[in-house]
Fold each of these.
Amino acid sequence: MNEMEAAQSLEMMRTTRGALAARAKWSLARHAAVGLLLGGLIAGYALPGPWPMVLAGACMAATAMVVARDRRRDGFFVSGYRSGRTWWVTFAMLLVGLAALVGAIVLKQRYGITWAPVAIGGGMAVFATIMSIVWERMYRQELDGARHGC
């Protein structure tokens, strides 16, 4: 491969990444789905008996449906657990989500505040929706940056 062919291949790769960045745009409803799934997972711990586990299973099934929907609509699904600039957003969501879950369970079981999981789950839904938007923007910038020589 000579320099001209290498330059053409590199430009084709940049163009392809730019096209992928343009396609990797999700609706507010898609971001809200992420928030509702994470918030619902936490809020479910307000329910009595086995219902928190039933709701957790429902959230997992709904997550699989979101992945299938993304693959059907966009032709691909991008896992949040990937290397690159977006890793810290995923890590922050994981840490905040775990802290929220532990807090919700402790407040309900130890202190008897039965509505705490609902309140904390609502906050987590908002937080996760915002972080999903941030994640998408960072991902698109990462893809598009290769097109602009970054």
Note: The longest helix spans residues 116-147.
Amino acid sequence: MGVWQLVMAGGVMLLGLLGVLLPGVPGPWLVWAAVLWWAMHELSGPAWTLLVAATAVLLVNQVVVWLLPPRRLKGAAVTPRAAVYAGVGALVGFVVVPVVGAVPGFIGGIYVCERRRLGGHGPAMASTRSAMRAAGTSVLVELFGCLLVVGAWVFVVLGG
């Protein structure tokens, strides 16, 4: 597989990660489709193993999201800016502390956004709790699953 095809697959995965944060965009499906496309062109053992593992992770991820309480966005101060901060925080946390850093990074991103918006620690903590109850948990689970798949893909591409 050429460099441009790897860049395109990575771009679709990045679009999928952003799609998790945007309502109506099928983020996990885009990540899975990019892995499928890459594996179909790579035709190696690690590529097929990653495709099977990505399929399993994203299916389990969808079941967990389905079992969580429904998103209650009405009345919660979940802004697009908070979603961007949460996504960037999760990505930074995932890179700094591999895999498990995505969770505190996500919550920390929401807190930083709310702290800047509201100005104090107490209101920012209350707003962060409200945002996590409203939609944050399901978005975090979905984003974490997609980050696992993308991280494994980067590991296989750089290791191979």
Note: The chain has a mean pLDDT of 86.
